[in-house]
Each structure stands twice: as C-alpha cells, then as structure tokens.
Design goal:
The structure is a homotetramer. Chain A is of the alpha+beta class. In chain A, 47% of the residues lie in helices and 13% in strands.
Chain lengths: 234, 234, 234, 234
C-alpha cells in the first residue's frame, strides 16, 4: 500500500498580494499598477484580515492552486469531486489498466487483525479477477466494476483560495470522513509553505462561526443555541 | 440485481415557452407579460429552432429538470457528478448501511459464464465482509471501502436544459461508457414525454457538428479533416 | 417613470417537497418514489428546518425560480448579474432601440427639487442625443454610450433556492444599495406566495449569523467580537 | 479620454506544461512527478494539439490568468461580467467618487463632428451634475445614476484557459461589439507573450467550427448549410 502524496505543482505567484491588490481596486481611485507597487507584505496582510473580518471573500478567487494528489481511495475522490467550483483531471479506470494493486485500508480495519486479513483477501481476489478479465479480453472499463472503493487513484485539482477556504471549512471538521480530513490537512500544509497568511485561514467552519453547528461538538468550540429572532434581539 | 429506474420528479412547467419568452426579452421592446401571452406553441417552437441554429444557448438555462435516478453503479455516479453545472443529492454510503446487495453486471461479463460466476462470488464475498464489519461495530463509512464500484446507488439530479444538451452531446456518443449512455437515453426519454421539442435536441455531439470528432466514427456521421486555416478558407 | 415590476413566471412545482425528498435520499434506504409519497407537508417542513439548522444547503438547489424583472436601472442590473450561480436573459441595448425613455430617480435626488430638475434635464438631453444619433444612422450599440445608468432595463432571471438564500443574505442587508434591496424584497414576496417556508428563509445574513458583521449595525442585530481562537475557547 | 490598458498581473507559471501534465494523468499509469519531469516543451505542445483536436478541454482549466483591465466603458464591463466562469473585482461606483471624468467615445460618433460635439457636452453635463450632487452631500451610489455607460471603469479579472478560449470564441467574432472585441484582442496579446501555444488558440468560433454560424459572414469563413440528419448522412 502506498501513502497519500500531495504536491503543489503550480499556483498563482504572490497569491496574497494578488488578492490584496484586486480587493483595493474596488475601493481605490488609483491605477492597478500603482496599487500593486504600493502593496507591502504588511499592508497585504492587513488587507486580507479586513476582507476576512467583513466576509468579503470574492477577491480570494484571484489566487489559484494546482495540486497533484496521489494515493487517495476512489471512495474519497468521489467525495472530493463534489466540490464543483474547482477543476479536476483524474486517472481514468477506462483507459488505465491497474497492473499493480494499490489500495487504502481504514485504520478501524487494520485494528482488527481477523477483519484485516479478510479485507486483504477480498480486495486481492477482486484484483485477481480484474486481471483475469483483462487477459480474457474484456475492456478495462467493464473489468473495473469488480474493483473496491479502496483502490487508489490519482488526480490533478485546481481550486481557488475562496473555494479552498470553503472546502476546508467542511472537510477539516472532524465530523468529515477521516480520509478526506487527512487529504485536506495535506493541502493546507502545502499552502502554508507558500502563502502562510492564506494557509492560516484554511480551517474548519467552527473557527469562523465561533461555535460548532454539528449536533455534537468535538470539543474545539461549543455548540450554541440557534440565533434569537431579530425582534427579540433588539 | 435491480434495473435502472429514472423518473422526472419535477421540472419547470411549460419549459419550451419559458425558454422562448426569456429569449424574446433580449430583443423585444414589449413587456415580459405581453411576450408570454403572445407566445403560441408554434411560435415558441420556431424561436427554439432559431436559437439553436444561432448557437444562442443561454435562454435554455431557464428550464430545469429534476430526476430521481436509481440502480446505477457507483462507477457511473462518479462519472455523472463530474458535470458540475448541475445539482446532486446522492445516497450516502456513510449514513446508509446496505443490507441488501444490489449491483450492476456489465454485459461483457454476463456473456462469459465462467467470469460471470467468479464476478458474482467476488462481489458477494465483498458484501459479506461488509456485513461482518458492520456487525463487528465498524462504521459504515469504513466498511464500504471493500464494496465494489458495481454497487448500486440512487440520487436526485437537477440540470437545466442547456447543460442537459451539453451532457447528452458527450454521454450519448457511443464512445462514452455503455452504462452512462443508457442512463442518458433514459433521461432523454423522460424529457421527450413533457417537452418533445427540447427532448429532440438531446443528441450526441455529432448531430450538431455535422461530423464525428472521435478518432474512429461509429458510422452515424463521418469524421472530417480539421478545418483549414482562415487564409486558405477565403 | 415606470415602477419596478417583478413576476414569478415559472418555478419548480412543490418546491419544498422536492427539496425535502432530495434530502431524504442521502440518508434513507427506501426508493425515491416511496420517499416522495410518504412526505406530508408537515414532514417536509420539519426536514427543511433540520437542513437549515445543520447548514446542509445543497438540497435547496433542486428548487428553481424564474422571475421576470422590469423597471430596474442598469446600475442595479450590473450588480444583479454579478451573482454567477444563476441564469439571466436581459434586454439588449445593442438590438433594442429605446424609443420611450424610462429611468429610475433615486429618492435622495427627488428630495432635492433643484437637483431633481437638473437630473431630469440631463437624462432627457442624453436620450434626445441618443435618438438623434439613431436617426443619423448610428448603430444603437454605439448611441447607447450616452445613456445614463438610470435607464431602465428588463430581464428574466432563474435562480435556485440555495443561491436565492445566499443572494438575499447579502442584498436584503440594509447596507446593500437601496434599489437592489427593494428588488430582493419583491423577489422574496413572490416566493412567499408559493413557498412560504422557503420564503421565510430569505433574510439578511444577520438572521443566520445571530449578529451583524458590518462595521456599524442597522440595529436589527448587534455587532460582535471576532470569535476567540479555539485554544481559548476550550 | 484614456486608452484601454490591459496587464497580465499574474498567471499559473508554465501554463502549457501544467495543462499537458494534468491531461497525461488521466491516461497514464506513472506518477504525476514523473509525468512532469518527462514533459519536454515539444511533447507538451503536441499534447495540447491532441487535446484540442479531440475536444478534451477540461485540462485547460488548470491554467489561470489574472488581468488588470483599465479604461473600458461600463457598457463593456456589463457585458464582460456575464461570463460567469471567471472572477471579477471591479471598481465600485458606490465607494469611489469619480473626480476626473474618463469616458469612451465610439468611433462612429467621433466620425461625425456635430454629434461628437453634442456627445462631449452631454457627457460632461452629466459629470458636472454628478459632482454637484456629491458636493450637496448626496451619496456617490445615488449620484452615479446620472453617469453615462461611456464612463470608464477598472477591474481585475481571473479566467482559466478553457473559459478564455470559450469567451474569445464569442468575443473575437467581428459580430461582437467593437469595444469588447478590442478588449479580447488585448487579452490575447498578453497571453501570447507568456504562452504562445495557448495564445494561438484564442480565436473566434469560426476557427474551430470551420465555418461561420452567424447569419452573414465577415468573410473569414463561409456560412454553411445546417448539418444533414444522421440518417441522410449515413
């Protein structure tokens, strides 16, 4: 079994300055070139904080990140591609025959040796039949029906910083599925290396809300009462 | 094994008239109410033809269709949700435990009894282990890693008529995967019942191109030479 | 000057039941047809409340609303079309010559008779020159450069219930521009007539947040301190 | 009057190699890092040609371009922001008071001295009243109703290469409005400087179709008969 591997293969250079410069355009009378030149890192940083505090998130769309993601299960890639404001190019099980079998084993299964044993046997039996079907001349696009969700896949994903903040707000919540939580932690780590201010904003939703909106809290933030109606609030 | 079942559970009433009325707004000085009342079915039909001929497809976004889809494999649902300009709510393998095992068997496998036999055995062994893991207290979201791509799923999908035409242009091409071709044929059949003019436009891309742009044609339309450069064309 | 006119020309029938049925699909083992039949209005209502409380908003995308909007200024239509997850067909100033001049006058201008007088004169001078240019054979697409942002336009807009809730969260805030606030109040009134439960959720963002995130509150909800860091919150 | 100014302030480094590497992921069994290293410029170029010939456009989404655009009219920015698969941050007429008046004069107006004279007088009268209203304490968001569509604006736009090809296919057609044609010619020129292979694909739709689908051709490509029905084509 391989490990998950995430690499940031490309991104908007100077992502935080790009966002800050774009945001200044909407409220400033000076030219964009001037805005760009005047933007010190400190000023950019402070502008990002203001945007976040005010919930003005659209300028964050101007910074885009392209990741290579390898070693996640098809279970997880199926969840990942549900984020529609992003671009994906995924290894095709129609065109690529999987000679070697790489697959993910959940920790709850590894913890139970008797189940783990059966798990490996069933997954390997599936791969063996897959290989037999290919040898028998069946198309890979049909043989793959027998492959389990555990089978690893690879893909390239591009996502802008606004959508990345949104996806992290959902997928870094400990109520999300463990494999996708792990993936987003690696995406965050990659962003932190090149854009520390942005990376620091890739957090579960409770960081922004100030409370937990799940039915039971993981302990990071308490749950809260639903907001009072406005007439009561006055 | 269940059969695929597709039902149109909801759609924009009067979809063709809605599209035609919207299109008239852009070029007419009269009010929208007047436009609506003046639109006979024949006039709407003729306006749709003009829009299609001119490639003015945005008014087709005003008609939306909501389908219940049951009995497709996870292999196919993973492809389906890659159409991003649509809305999906899919049965979750995290929250729903699959007591009964419904799964898809590709025809190329059914055609080979010795492979088919093994296929059923492997798929059933996977489901048996899945059930054992659930009984042993493992969460469904982990047990499902062993389930094959063949396992059936159900979902609700909403797609507007413009995206439906685009998705059909790709998925009704015989080079697409057989299960998704079958699904889109059923979606088209549903649309034809309530909007025959629109339904008739749900076709593989070659109908609109007038040629086949795949490397080998299925015979419906011939492939073509790439377009000449404009200076040569003059 | 005309008044703004908003009409709901089409929408997903049974919008609340459609949303509730879609939401049930993700967590229920029964078929979609059964789900649909079992859904009483009270059950649908209660499901919508649960979805909203948990922030599970994607099922709300399955209900779509198509509005005819007439009599808003080009100033406002330019803001409106910035909501990208929606479909618009707008009267074209390239193809439609505006014989009669309909335009919007802000209340702050009407309140100052000497400015209002000048305003009408300047707007009418612009329209007069526009008409002269058309008579002189200039294309409408060029003559329109002289027309003010006040000039009225009409359009058809389709938006699903999730995006409608999002757009209202921004545009019903009293810090939004008065004309677009008024437009969204009319959109909300239309939805309330056919889907009271949904319509009741079309509110400024503070209703959901439980506080005001603008720099100064209108009084409906108080502003709040930014959320504490999670380590402090524990 | 200022001239339009377009600058490419940021873009995905190595855009063509990024697209080619992503595309290879879908059909190759080797790791993404290996794919990246093996990709010579010639190989990337040839892969892009294959993708374009086959109409596989989704990998082009992985390269994104961020432009500063200054000196276009509000008439044109209103058209531009209708391309929804892009990100915009535009100078706000709510928050920025336009002390100096910069505006666009269409060539058909400049060509007619008597009309041009009136045009300047009407536009300047509008700006004068605008300034008076600001001095009288009216908010900029209301005073701007009097400003003509000719008034210049500035914005930052990010668009990926797939959407840029699509937008150019519509906006480089000589049937598009002259100002937006000019803008997209400048966007193309910027892309050509850093990604010549991609830039060469930013063309009006007829280049790809091999014919003109407008009612009257500009001469670059001939119009064509609508495609025959498939049964006739066989």
């Amino acid at each position: 079994m391989d490990l998950v591997h995430v690499a940031l293969i490309s991104y908007t250079p100077d992502p935080e300055r790009t966002i800050a410069a774009a945001a200044r355009v909407s409220v400033s009378p000076v030219t964009i070139t001037e805005l760009w030149e005047r933007l010190s890192p400190e000023r950019a940083d402070s502008l990002l904080s203001q945007l976040l505090a005010a919930g003005h998130l659209s300028p964050f769309e101007h910074a885009s990140f392209t990741f290579a993601i390898e070693g996640i299960s098809r279970v997880t890639s199926h969840q990942l591609v549900r984020h529609r404001l992003a671009s994906y190019t995924q290894q095709s099980q129609r065109y690529v025959s999987l000679k070697k079998l790489d697959y993910v084993t959940p920790a709850t299964i590894s913890a139970r040796p008797e189940l783990e044993n059966k798990y490996h046997r069933v997954v390997e039996a599936a791969h063996e039949l897959y290989s037999q079907m290919l040898e028998a001349g069946l198309p890979a696009e049909d043989a793959r029906y027998v492959l389990p969700g555990a089978v690893e896949t690879r893909l390239v994903m591009s996502m802008n910083a606004r959508e990345l903040m949104h996806a992290c707000s959902l997928r870094l919540c400990l109520k999300a599925q463990w494999e996708i939580v792990g993936l987003f932690e690696m995406l965050k780590a990659e962003v932190l290396k090149v854009a520390p201010r942005l990376g620091a904003e890739l957090n579960p939703k409770c960081y922004r809300l100030g409370y937990c909106d799940e039915s039971v809290s993981c302990g990071l933030f308490p749950t809260r009462e639903p907001p009072s109606a406005p007439d009561k609030a006055k």
